Amino acid sequence: MYFIYNILVLIAGFSLKIIALFNKKINLFIEGRKQTFQKLTSIISKNDNVIWFHCASLGEFEQGRPILEKLKEQYPTYKFVLTFFSPSGYEVRKNYELADVICYLPIDTKQNAKRFLDIVNPELVVFVKYEFWPNLLKELKVRDIKTILISGIFRKNQVFFKWYGAWMRKSLIAFEHFFVQDKNSELLLNNINFLNVTVSGDTRFDRVYEITKQDNQLSFIEKFKDGKYTLVAGSTWKEDEQLLIDYINNKASENEKFIIAPHNINYEDIQKLKNSITKETVLFSEKENLNLSTYQVFIIDTVGILTKIYSYANVAYVGGGYTKSGVHNVLEPATFGIPIIIGPNYYKFNEAIDLVNEEACFVVNDSKKLSVLLSKFFQGNKNREKAGNNALKYVIDKTGATTKILYYLKK
User: What residues of the chain score a pLDDT lower than 50?
Assistant: First the structure.
C-alpha cells in the first residue's frame, strides 16, 4: 500500500498541474509550492533553532495560533516556520507577523520530505488537527524529531481504524503525543494501541476567548450603530441573504440596524445585494465622508474585520447553514456573549451542535421562522441575555487546552 500511495502522489501532482491551467485555486496551490524551498533556504540557516507548525488551512491556523504565540514568547530567538496545505489558509495568513517563514507544504514525496527537513531541521513539530502525510511522518520518525498533534480529532471511518489501514497506522508512530479534542478520539487511538493521548480539548476556545481581551473598537461601526439594536450577519451566502432581505424589507422596525458581511465579496454580488434592499444601505467601500448613523443596513465588502464587528452585535446570524459545506464559525460571536442564529446544515460541527443544545444558538429553516425569532430577540432583552450568557459560558467552560499542551512541552 505504501508503494501504491507513492505512485498516486506522483500521479496527483502531475494531474494538478494540468487542472491548474483552468482552476484559479489549484493554480495558487501549484505556483505557491514552487517558492517553498527558495523561501526556506533564504531565511533558515543550519545554526538556527526552529519550531515548525503545519496547518491544513485557515481554521487549523486559528487552532494552532494560541500555542504558536505562547511558544514565540518563550523562545524569542527561535525561528518559526508556518506551512499550509490549502491556498485558503496561506493566502489569508501569508503575512502573519510572528512566523519567520510562511509557505506551502511540499507535495508528500520521499524526496520532498527529506529536502524539506534537511533545510528546516526543526527541534519541535506541531501538526494541527489532522493532515497525516506518510512520507513526511516517516522521515520525522527516522530523524527522531519531537512531533506532536494538537486539537486532534479522529473518527471511526478514517483509514487508521480499518482492517487495511496498517500502513497508515505506522505513520502515527511519528507522534510523541496526541492532544485530542474529545474522549471518542482518545478511545479510537487507544484501540489501535496508541496510549500517548491526552484529551485536552480544542485550542480554538482559547483563541476565541482571547479575542474578547483585544482592542475590538471600530469607530465607523460605532457611528453606524448609534446605540441602536444591531444584528450582525457574518459569512453569509445568497440563501442566507434572501431570508435576511425578506425580513429587512418587510418586517424590520426602523430602530433595528443590520450589518451584513458576505462570504463572497465580488463586486457584482455585492451590488445585487445592495440593490435588493429597500432600506437605506451603505457599503464599507462607500463609508468615507458619510453620516453612517442615517443608514439602516451596512454591507461589509472587505475582509478581516468580521470578528471585531461581532463585538457590536446584539444578535448574530452566521451564514453557511444552507450550503453543502455547512455553517461557518459560530465560536467568534459566541465568545462575545450574544445569541446566534444559523441555517439547518450544522451537524458536522460539534460546537454548533453544542450551542444549539445549550439554547445559545437557534436554527431557522425558512424566512417565517427567522422573522419570529428576530422579532422575539428585538422585543425581549431577557431572551437575548439568557441565550448570550449560555453562549459565553459554553466558550469559557471549554478553554484550557493551550495550558495543558504548554505544560507538556515544558517537561
Answer: none
Rounded to two decimals, what is the model's pTM? 0.83
pLDDT at 37: 96
* Amino acid 20: pLDDT: 81
What is d(CA 376, CA 302) in angstroms, rounded to the nearest whole number? 30
Domain boundaries, the chain: 2-201, 219-397
Tell me whether the CATH fold assigned to 2-201 matches the one assigned to 219-397: yes
**250-270: b (≥16 Cβ within 10 Å) or e:** eebeeebbbbbbbbebeeebb
Per-residue pLDDT, 187 = 98
Bridging pattern class, strands 101-104 and 315-318: unpaired
Within a 10 A sphere around the Cβ of 41, how many other Cβ atoms?
13
The pLDDT value recorded for residue 8 is 83
Contacts of 137 (CB under 8 A, 6+ apart): 147, 171, 172, 173, 174, 175
Pick the CATH number of 219-397 from 3.40.50.10580, 3.40.50.360, 3.40.50.2000, 3.40.50.10800: 3.40.50.2000
pLDDT at residue 3 in the model: 79
Q: Any idea which architecture 2-201 has in CATH?
A: 3-Layer(aba) Sandwich (3.40)
Interatomic CA distance for residues 364 and 346, integer angstroms: 11
Selection from 308, 321, 401, 407 nearest residue 363 by Cα: 321
- pLDDT tens digit sequence for 54-104: 999 988 999 999 999 999 999 999 999 999 999 988 998 999 999 999 999
DSSP characters for 202-270? -HHHHHHHHHTTS----HHHHHHHTTSEEEEEEEE-HHHHHHHHHHHHHT--TTEEEEEEES---HHHH
Per the document, the length of the chain is: 411
